[in-house]
């Protein structure tokens, strides 16, 4: 059942969630019903493999591409799944024997098996599919591999022997005409092979390529992203935030089994004359965090700030108490703007108004002290995103010390690698003593990991 298994693999690559049990159900269903009726096969596989309405269009598209050559096999009388999975050797032997008996003259002249098949105009669709399977065409990822696979399939079909026959020195006009016929037939076959490879590329590689790009963007430096990648990155950020929100969507009650709550246990069993029918265990309620986020949106950090704010505001279900501030020199609260407008539109306005300016951490922290210091308490988590490059100015670490002492914890996220801290005009060392944690934050994976820990240990 490799034929069906490969199709299930293509669906998984396209993003359909298919479990091993569902795969086995689909294979068993096809074993019982066969592939004679394309419509029946399509319906049965859809019932066993597609669970979400949004996946229906992807399934139908891939089914039509993947099963396109079944009609060719059906037209030739190959109506069973067994015939689709027959070996190349069995098919070529039977076809060559029939063609030799039917056309003695051509068989005597054509010396290669592939040439013989082409002269008899035999349908090569099934042979091409089997050769592609043998060459593991389903592993194709890049469009640059298409010519390579077409060449390998031609070789497996017998292309080398056919080429030798075409290039051989001939003595008679009949042999010359034969070579011309074989050359034309080879060109038609190569075009058919390329069409098949293109079809399989659309099935297997298109979604692999998209997944490869997504994996790359998740690990890429946010500060180096091109504007052409912004739309896809925004979708990835929101997808990662939704996943995290699902994991932390409820107020969790973490039970510490092994720590018996004696008072509650006695109270729960008071009606049973001291017999302990019901035990009560000590528990710790994990509260939703109260967060203040401060983002440097100067030229060197603005791109990272954009996606950090987008991620944070995509977590509104689990982090509703968020106040946001941005600065280059003057500190501005943007909480209301982010709450009242669409997040993408609000981010664009923030970057246009305050992004790209030179940095003054001292001035920004003085503004923050005036605007927000009185609102910080022992339930507040402070998140600062900045590279601590202050253009040789006074960074006012004394204000940051006050922030640290009044808050529950302080996280400083630096978009530069660690060995760049405290070089040039960086004053990271002045702020580090007054931080609960100082971490590099350069990619989407870093942002996701940081917020996962915030929610876990809130």
Automatic annotation (TrEMBL):
SUPFAM superfamilies listed in its UniProt record: vWA-like (SSF53300)
Domain of life: Bacteria
Protein name from the UniProt record: VWA containing CoxE family protein
Organism: Paraglaciecola mesophila
